[in-house]
Specification:
The chain has helices at 7-23, 30-37, 41-47, 51-75, 80-95, 100-109, 111-122, 125-137, 147-161, 164-170, 174-189, 192-205. It is 78% helix and 0% strand. The protein is mainly alpha-helical. It has a domain at 62-205: Tetracycline Repressor, domain 2 (Orthogonal Bundle). The two termini are 33 Å apart.
Length: 206
Amino acid sequence: MVNQYTEQEEQILEEGFESIAQTGVRSFTVESLASRLGMSKKTIYKYFPTKEKLIRKIVIFMTGKIERLFKKVRENGDNPVIQFVKVMDHISTFATKAPVQRLVQLKTTYPAVWKEIESFRLNRQQDFYEIFKSAQEQGLARSDVNMKHFSIVFINMVNNTFQPEFFLKNDLPIKDTVVGFANVVANGIFTEKGMQVMQTYKERKH
């Protein structure tokens, strides 16, 4: 994949994400970002003419990074069960970078941007289908499940349930909830052989 950003744009987007994660979109300003970067506002506006366009690009930049992580995991030749664990680990790590309150701000202040995040999530359905189908073909996942249907249900459950309001209302930590959800899914879809692969991998990792 050819990098679509210049080095300076990447610097702005990376620091922009860190700034939003720390202060939220309501407190985020181009002035404060310029100060963090030691850069003029004019330079930032050269690439991103408005605050809203900058925030949208920050979100696209970060979801692009996640997509590349997915691709890397899929291409590294690991067992599909291990791929599932790694992908869910990446998701939980990314999800904890910004406090829930910051995500609520983003969703309520920039609903169109939040819709792009949801679209990104739903577009991962094919990634999970390939993982589950590969596991099934290797005898690591249940043979009596239509993996195409299951992956559609799975990704829609993730998208509809894991909303910032859900975590706030139920006072749930994001990382623990994502990990717990992944374990429930794994126990329901993988065979005993598949769960042994997962357990062995986790033991080696720790």
